[in-house]
Amino acid sequence: YVMKNVYFPDEEVTADDLYFVCYMVERVARQLKQPNKYVVNSIGKQGLREKLSLANVLHCENPDSVAHDWIEAYGLQQGEYDVTNVDAKYTDRIPTATQMGKVYCRLIISTLQESEDYADGLNRVYNHPIAEIIDDYNSSAYYEPSYVLTRGYWAGGF
User: Which of 53, 95, 99, 123 has the smallest C-beta neighbourhood within 10 Å, fewest atoms?
Assistant: First the structure.
């Protein structure tokens, strides 16, 4: 699969760039107490293409600064959805934003359609019902191997 950079068409967007954007989506969503799909939908497909194209540079920046820029640029609002608010017996199992970035990156890559680019995949996966299951840290879905998540994606759940 090859996605071209929107700013420099001779450069390719890599899986590492996708991982960075997934990580930042998670980071921004947690900071704002919003579901991941709120961030993805607010940025939009073209915005995601731009973020993916800039990821090779943005990953060198302070992630708090990048998150702040995304919040400002897209007018993202504070919410009340706290993905880390889990049953006390599971508080030691809350994955980090970087871990969840990897989970979503792998799921996007494993389900990417021939006609899609990474921005399409981001939009599709974060808006799929399985995202709600993965983001329920009272369950163990996010700990499942990639092939199990992929199978769950295609089946519409577990």
Answer: 99
pLDDT in tens, the chain (158 residues): 789 999 999 999 999 999 999 999 999 999 999 999 999 999 999 999 999 999 999 999 999 999 999 999 999 999 999 998 888 776 677 899 999 999 999 999 999 999 999 999 999 999 999 999 999 998 888 989 999 999 999 998 88
What is the Cα–Cα distance from 107 to 121, expressed in whole angstroms? Answer: 9
Which tokens sit at 93? 């199992």
pTM above 0.85, yes or no: yes
- From 1, 81, 96, select the one nearest 35 (Cα to Cα): 81
Using DSSP, state whether 79 is helix, strand or coil: coil
Measured CA angle at 98 (ends 59, 62), to 5 deg: 35
